[in-house]
């Protein structure tokens, strides 16, 4: 939204302005549908702490640590809470940037909660998908600086969170990152795909998405899926060093540059959020998709084989 707003300020006249205005108002309508949901989510989760926020107003940035055990999977309530927090950051005058990480050892995020796609009622499915779209629009479209400190596995929706940031540092170790949707028998949505293309390029994305490739940290560095590797113990320090560097850039120039780079990709989803939600519902309700999801869920729940 903020990027759309900045773009709106810059493009004062002509059809581009009208187009952005219409995109913005569609987005606002979709957001207002989520308001009740947000209240429900904050009531239901009042006793749980699904993430921690450590704000350092002096330095001008915050650290947001995902904390929804066991694997930071993204369900409706969690996304709704995250969206509220992202909005708070966006409105903050003191916070220039956010380091996004996880408090769960070896896991950044396991991506979408598969239970939100398996045998789910249409209403819930559409609320879930709307919340996910909102998270991406807020993160990818943010005026703030987002640095992902990827402390562990980051498949599918977890990868989407990190590639929506401006810079990625990943822990060295036996961790995997990538858009592995085809391995679940599903297709990555076009906005996941486009964010990936913007990060690692068309050809690499074409291979990665078809193969459902999960990259090791070294492989991820080699294709620019991440920008830097760090020993786990140094991850946050490195992210903070990087954040100081980004914070030192003149803000308006950086924001306008970011928005000019991301506007077209964002506009594509903003212009067709409802159709995209319908397509998610239609796709996930297919018998063949439900069967694939069931098999994938079973494979996750199988007792792990001993490597000995
Ligand atoms: C038109 C478009 C339509 C649809 C588009 C949909 C796009 C989808 C995007 C997604 O994000 S789909 C989710 C993809 N995620 C994955 O494939 C990750 C699966 N998980 C793992 O590989 C591993 O769990 C791990 C993240 C590597 C962590 O491994 P670890 O050994 O540490 O944990 P374990 O596997 O034992 O898991 C603990 C516990 O959590 C459950 N789990 C794991 N991931 C998910 C998930 N994404 N959703 C729901 N639940 C998940 C797992 O089953 C275990 O449960 P249990 O304790 O009850 O056995």
UniProtKB/TrEMBL annotation:
It catalyses: (2E)-tetradecenoyl-CoA = (3Z)-tetradecenoyl-CoA; (3Z)-decenoyl-CoA = (2E)-decenoyl-CoA; (3Z)-dodecenoyl-CoA = (2E)-dodecenoyl-CoA; (3Z)-octenoyl-CoA = (2E)-octenoyl-CoA. The keyword GTP-binding does not apply. Pathway: Lipid metabolism; fatty acid beta-oxidation. One of its GO terms (biological process) is fatty acid beta-oxidation. Gene3D superfamilies: 2-enoyl-CoA Hydratase, Chain A, domain 1, 6.10.250.170. CDD domains: crotonase-like. The keyword Flavoprotein does not apply. Transmembrane segments: none annotated. Signal peptide: none annotated. GO terms for molecular function: delta(3)-delta(2)-enoyl-CoA isomerase activity. Its main location: mitochondrion. It is found in: Mitochondrion matrix. It holds the Pfam family ECH_1. Keywords: Acetylation, Fatty acid metabolism, Isomerase, Lipid metabolism, Mitochondrion, Transit peptide. GO terms for cellular component: mitochondrial matrix. Belongs to the enoyl-CoA hydratase/isomerase family. Homotrimer. Key enzyme of fatty acid beta-oxidation. Able to isomerize both 3-cis (3Z) and 3-trans (3E) double bonds into the 2-trans (2E) form in a range of enoyl-CoA species, with a preference for (3Z)-enoyl-CoAs over (3E)-enoyl-CoAs. The catalytic efficiency of this enzyme is not affected by the fatty acyl chain length. This is Enoyl-CoA delta isomerase 1, mitochondrial.
């Amino acid at each position: 939204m903020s990027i759309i707003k900045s773009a709106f300020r810059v493009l004062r006249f002509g059809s581009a302005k009208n187009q952005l205005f219409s995109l913005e108002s569609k987005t606002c309508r979709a957001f207002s549908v989520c308001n009740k949901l947000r209240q429900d989510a904050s009531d239901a989760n009042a006793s749980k702490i699904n993430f921690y926020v450590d704000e350092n107003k002096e330095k001008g940035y915050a650290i947001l640590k995902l904390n929804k055990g066991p694997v930071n999977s993204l369900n409706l309530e969690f996304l709704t809470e995250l969206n509220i927090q992202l909005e708070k950051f966006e409105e903050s005058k003191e916070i220039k940037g956010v380091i996004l990480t996880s408090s769960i050892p070896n896991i950044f995020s396991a991506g979408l909660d598969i239970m939100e796609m398996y045998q789910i009622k249409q209403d819930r499915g559409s609320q879930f998908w709307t919340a996910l779209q909102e998270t991406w629009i807020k993160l990818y479209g943010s005026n703030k600086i987002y640095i992902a400190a990827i402390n562990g596995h980051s498949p599918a929706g977890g990868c989407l969170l990190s590639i929506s940031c401006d810079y990625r540092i990943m822990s060295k170790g036996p961790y995997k990152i990538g858009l592995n949707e085809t391995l679940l028998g599903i297709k990555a949505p076009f906005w996941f795909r486009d964010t990936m293309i913007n990060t690692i390029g068309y050809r690499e994305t074409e291979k990665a998405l078809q193969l459902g490739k999960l990259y090791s940290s070294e492989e991820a560095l080699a294709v620019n899926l991440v920008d830097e590797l760090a020993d786990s113990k140094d991850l946050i320090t490195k992210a903070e060093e990087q954040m100081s560097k980004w914070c030192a850039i003149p803000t308006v120039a950086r924001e306008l540059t970011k928005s000019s780079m991301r506007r077209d990709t964002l506009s594509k989803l903003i212009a067709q959020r409802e159709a995209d939600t319908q397509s998610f519902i239609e796709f996930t309700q297919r018998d063949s998709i439900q069967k694939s999801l069931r098999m994938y869920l079973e494979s996750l729940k199988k007792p792990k084989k001993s490597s000995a």
